[in-house]
Amino acid sequence: MREFYNENERIAVVTTEPFARLLDYLAPEGGCKIGSFLILPLGKRKVMGVVWGPGEGQYEHSKLRNAITVIDAPPMSYSMRKFLEAVSDYTITPLNLILRLCTRVPDLNKPSVTQKVFSLVSNHSDFKKTPQRDRLISALSKANKNKLTIKEIVNISGVSTAVIAAAARAGILNEELILRDSPYPVLDPDFKPKKLNPNQINVCETVKDLQRQNNFSAILLQGVTGSGKTEVYLEAVANALRKGEQVLVLLPEIALTSEFFNRVKNRFGENPAQWHSGATLAERRRVWKMVARGGAKLVIGARSALFLPFMNLGLIIVDEEHDHSYKQEDGVIYNARDMAVLRASVERSTVILASATPSLESWVNAKNGKYNHVRIHERYGEATLPNLSAIDLRKENLKSDEWISDSLEKSITECLQNKEQSLLFLNRRGYSPTTVCRACGNQISCDECDARMVEHRFINRLMCHQCGNTKAMLDKCPSCGIKGKLAVVGPGVERLAEEAQIKFPKAKISVLSSDLHGSAKSIKDEIQKISEGNTDIIIGTQLVAKGHNFPKLRLVGVIDIDIGLQGSDLRAAERTYQLVRQVSGRAGRTDNKGRALIQTYQPEHPVVEAILRGDDEEFWVSEAKQRELASMPPFGKLVGIIISSSNFERAMFSANQLKKNTQALDIIGASVYGPAPAPIARIKRRHRIRFLVKSPRTPGLQDAVRKWVANVSLKGDLRLSIDIDPQSFY
Ligand code: ADP
Ligand code: ZN
């Protein structure tokens, strides 16, 4: 492929506009390279695009327009282009939508801006002293970098901007202009390594050998919570840094964790770049530019960081790889864990998937040798795994509006007496999941969706968890109009907190649920408060399952394990297993012996028994066997298709058209289930019709699905969405 295109030569461009195909343009003044980011004329607008190759020539030369300019950014690398094409093929999504995932950065098309920074001159003691100046000088001499913006100086010294400006005029401070998108501080791979134990050393050696091969390798790093997986993969990060490679670490719920950033700073001496929704626009722009230029060696990011234009990506780490938040469910539907493996294979680099409770997909890949399987068997140091037992709710005398059994209450009381923390886990946001009218039986549901409204007392409203709509609380039933008969059924975390406060009136209780806090920062602060021990009882949704370190936590109570096991979801067992293992792993992470009590009406359920026995291997073996017998993922493939429209008949008509001609799928031996109204048949006023395609594992699957769905034309507000490897089936 040609590298450079002269001015007026034909080029093919992928734009970020909704065209499924490449568009032909003429190269701009001064020419452009393959991969160059361009500003292009489109009708009367200016749009962005990337040079993908030579023009295709359907149009006459004289009809083509010139690209306007080349954007000030390095051209997109060959491997990045191959990666985007591969994601587009795998997810059956037009390339332009995939390109958008990697150009979501503010002001990409604007030149770099500068900012003023100040540094302390070396002969500052020669100048006249004032108390304000002393404060300024002492803060600057202690600062961890020598060039700071005026805002940063105000923050660390507490002196006013006037004092700083005067010090600059007097010559105590040196003033200069630097590019805002400047390189990140250099990380030192040998800054403060930990001394590893023999098991950890073994694992590190295996990983290092694979990294040395400079070729694609995928590693499943498995070890119970607290075994030191993070320490081990930070060693892999150090290896990559020594080789001059870039590293990406993906974390779920990254906006909520500051602990991890502290660990990285302690290990490598400086802060890494971060990419997530909580980062400022200026920060995101700097990360994007520096990743492309090599000025950012380590990026800690949310799933979308996978689409950053790294120039030399040697290592990707997907922490808590089983986490369901890696799946993006709207817009472009993709699983960042799987796409991380794809990216590593295109870049010929190493990918490490880390988890205490891997997804069945990764576990099977490790078992059959597709991934290297490395394991740490024990918790680090004195820490031991919590002792697990069940509370049989059939034998407890729970009232109908109570969820904390006497046995659990007794254990919590003991913890309170010993000044230790307990955590109650209930994976349900809000006060109560259902409000029902005791007069007519009507359940309060959303006007836009076929979903129940969930009472949230904290904000004093009813909320739909599908579309996020809220309504005022009601005093009479909207259906029969009778007053005073509405009653809540079942608990959410807010209701559980109410019960806990009644049972333990003196306890300090914290509720951790994504909707109870106004911002990521306020959740972070709450987590910090808990880690420092300023809470007696923590009540939380799955938010508490993720990686947080609560040193004083002794007891975990799982309020209702049965909730997760109900329903026909293919992954119900796996998900419950992972969640309960993760949550109970929070207890006893330091040295205390932790305990986990699991409340259930069915202690003999195989999943409950497997969790209690703590034999992970046995669970995966039996779960894998069942999936294999049913040819379900990862042994077979599933594709979810949703056709939606504001008009039910129109959606159903198109679905029936699709059903008539399934030849492309028949050829590869795939079967089609549906069409049927989806379990949530309406979301945001759109009716949803579902198909499920079940197919043997074959590389021809995407082609077949593409051919099949081409049978229906999407007129009006009809939409068709394709979900390869669906995780949710609503
Ligand atoms: P995981 O990621 O498997 O949950 P971590 O890496 O977070 O485990 O380790 C658990 C705790 O043990 C952390 O506080 C960590 O700093 C500590 N730790 C693990 N390995 C070592 C080591 N070799 N030296 C010192 N501390 C360690
Ligand atoms: Zn709704």
Bound molecules: adenosine-5'-diphosphate, zinc ion
Poorly predicted sequence stretches spanning 5 or more consecutive residues: none
Number of individual domains? 5
How far apart, in Å, are the first and last alpha carbons? 45 Å
Largest sheet: 7 strands, parallel
As a whole number of angstroms, the C-alpha radius of gyration is: 28 Å
CATH topology term of the largest domain: Rossmann fold
Helix amount, in percent?
Answer: 25-40%
Count of helical segments? 21
Task: List key phrases describing it.
730 residues; Rossmann fold; 7-stranded parallel β-sheet; 6-stranded parallel β-sheet; 21 helices; 33 strands; binds zinc ion
Could you explain how this protein is built, in words?
The chain has 730 residues and is an alpha/beta fold. It folds into five domains: 4-101, 3-Layer(aba) Sandwich (GIY-YIG endonuclease); 114-179; 198-376, 3-Layer(aba) Sandwich (Rossmann fold), CATH 3.40.50.300; 387-432 and 490-624, P-loop containing nucleotide triphosphate hydrolases (Rossmann fold), CATH 3.40.50; 636-724, 2-Layer Sandwich (Alpha-Beta Plaits), CATH 3.30.70. 31% of the residues lie in helices and 24% in strands. The protein has 21 helices and 33 strands. The strands form nine sheets. The protein has a seven-stranded parallel sheet with strand order 12-13-11-14-17-10-18, with helices on both faces. A six-stranded parallel sheet has the order 19-29-28-20-27-26, with helices on both faces. It has a five-stranded antiparallel sheet with strand order 3-2-6-5-7. Helix 1 (78-91) crosses helix 2, helix 1 (78-91) packs antiparallel against helix 10 (336-347) and helix 6 (198-212) runs parallel beside helix 7. The longest helix has 15 residues, at 198-212. The chain is globular. Adenosine-5'-diphosphate (ADP) is lined by residues 194-197, 200, 223, 225-231, 380.
